[in-house]
Amino acid sequence: MENMSTPLLESPEDSPVVEETSPSPSRLWIVILIAAIIVGLIVTAIFFLSKADISTTSRIRDIFIIFMAFESIIIGVALVVLVVQVSTLINLLQNEVKPILKSTKETVDTLKGTTEFLSSNLVEPVIKLNGYLAGMKQLFDLFKFKK
Predict the structure, then answer these.
(1) Using an 8 Å Cβ cutoff, are 15 and 9 in contact?
(2) Element spanning 54, H or E
(3) Number of folded domains in the chain?
(4) pLDDT of residue 22
(5) Does residue 37 sit within a domain?
(6) What is the pTM of this model?
């Protein structure tokens, strides 16, 4: 009888390709460049604010405070949207995905029971019968007269 088991992946060409998740060097340089520009702008702003008079500095400070308040409002709205999306996802998981998984588990359990029943009541007797018939054939072949 031939060996029916063969490996699924016979050569390195058949192996699945795993992509690297590390950033490429050009992307890394872009991030470093953007960070350097931001740091440079902050240092330049601090330098010019230290040289400017108090009224200019206070105006820039007020504009910056207004900008930060506006940014806080935007972040608050984004958090509210995030909470709504998370609650929608939880609702979806509880009311739609969970019943589907329960139904699938029931189906798999039913299929498992059916295969066990067929195995014990149909397949096993047929295999035993084939074994007995093969033994009888060998017995008849043993007593068969050759010409």
Answers:
(1) yes
(2) helix 54-92
(3) 1
(4) 64
(5) yes
(6) 0.46
